[in-house]
Specification:
10 helices, Methyltransf_11, 4-stranded mixed β-sheet, 2 domains, Rossmann fold, alpha/beta, Methyltransferase type 11 domain-containing protein, about 25% strand, S-adenosylmethionine-dependent methyltransferase activity
Length: about 350
């Protein structure tokens, strides 16, 4: 597995969201791995960041350390698992998904993908209307490309329809490995800015704010250009973005982050102060934890809706914007802006 050098994030305060449910393995953020021997806890230091390919659908995840070097957690030793009464849900999924079951077999390559699926299933209940939305929107019996497919939460249902062919593209091999095999589903590990695909797509779907995870305007232009390149004449591009990630002093989403951060740090949070230092994006520090320790901490970089300037970008890419609808969603982070653009015949 190759080394992966990440650019350092700006030295600015981060939002923190606490996920207090127990998970079946204990790890801590950045460069420290806690190895538990009997009643003692021994920190083990790692000097390199492994190429975890964690950027993709739903997150732009990086193990975060406030000072260099950024280091990845390479393996997990003990305990296995935490208290059974709190991990029954995860053990059930664990054993049905083919993950290692013996102590000492769990490794970093499985961690992020498993956390990703768990977060979608247990923390995003109000967002599950997106599946019904995409199944209604995307016609069957067509060639569909899903950019940022992750573990196939959107791509798999689209591929189950007779005659459909779905290419699920994601940067993370670990997430793609969790997609159940299906005759019409074809996982492809690739960067959405450099797609190894030809012009065969009738529908291109960019779900769940994946487009907002691209850091720069250049990256977004390249991703749109690649999407247009693989689209047949008359094909349609659908991009899902969150309207709450915007340049406003307050939003439901920011209030939730503020409350979560205050719960973790025991200090008040001024959410507008935190966004003002980054006029085009916000940084969210997500923390998965048990009662005993932090399991995993990573950051997400979200570009504000206004900073995307998506309508102008679609026109520059040679597409005709057909409509913008309110899509689906609910709860504190509704996704209510879906852009639909067509490639001219």
């Amino acid at each position: 597995m190759g080394r992966h050098h990440l650019e350092h994030l700006p030295s600015a305060p981060l939002f923190r969201m606490a996920h207090d449910q127990a998970l079946p393995f204990p790890i801590v953020p950045a460069h420290t791995l806690i190895v538990r021997v009997g009643r003692k806890s021994v920190p083990a230091r790692h000097e390199s960041m492994t190429d975890s390919d964690v950027a993709g659908y739903g997150t732009y995840a990086e193990h975060f350390s406030p000072s260099p070097p950024l280091c990845g957690i390479q393996s997990i030793r003990r305990p296995w698992p935490p208290r059974p009464s709190k991990s029954a849900t995860f053990r059930g999924e664990w054993q049905t998904q083919g993950y290692p079951r013996r102590r000492g077999e769990m490794r970093e390559q499985y961690v992020e993908a498993l956390l990703y699926d768990w977060h979608n299933q247990h923390k995003l209940r109000d967002q599950r209307l997106d599946l019904e939305y995409w199944l209604t929107l995307v016609p069957p019996q067509q060639n569909t490309v899903v950019l940022g497919a992750g573990t196939g939460r959107v791509a798999s249902p689209l591929a189950t329809r007779p005659g459909s062919r779905v290419v699920a593209v994601d940067l993370s091999r670990r997430r793609l490995a969790r997609i159940p095999a299906a005759p019409g589903l074809h996982p492809v590990c690739a960067d959405m800015r450099r797609l190894p695909l030809s012009r065969t797509a009738d529908q291109v779907v960019v779900p769940y704010s994946t487009f907002q995870l691209l850091r720069t305007a250049e990256d977004r232009e390249r991703a749109l250009a690649e999407a247009v390149r693989i689209m047949r004449p008359g094909a349609t591009l659908h991009i899902d973005v969150s309207s709450n990630f915007d340049l406003r002093e307050s939003s439901d989403w920011q209030r939730v982050l503020s409350a979560s951060c205050e719960e973790v740090s025991r200090q008040p949070v001024e959410e507008w102060e935190r966004t003002r230092s980054h006029p085009d994006h916000i940084l969210i520090d997500k923390t998965f934890r048990t009662d005993e320790c932090v399991l995993l901490r990573f950051t997400e970089h979200w570009t504000h809706l206004r900073a995307l300037n998506l309508e102008a970008a679609l026109v520059r890419a040679g597409l005709a914007l057909e409509r913008v609808d309110h899509g689906y969603g609910g709860g504190a982070s509704p996704h209510r802006r879906i852009y639909h653009a067509r490639r001219p015949l």
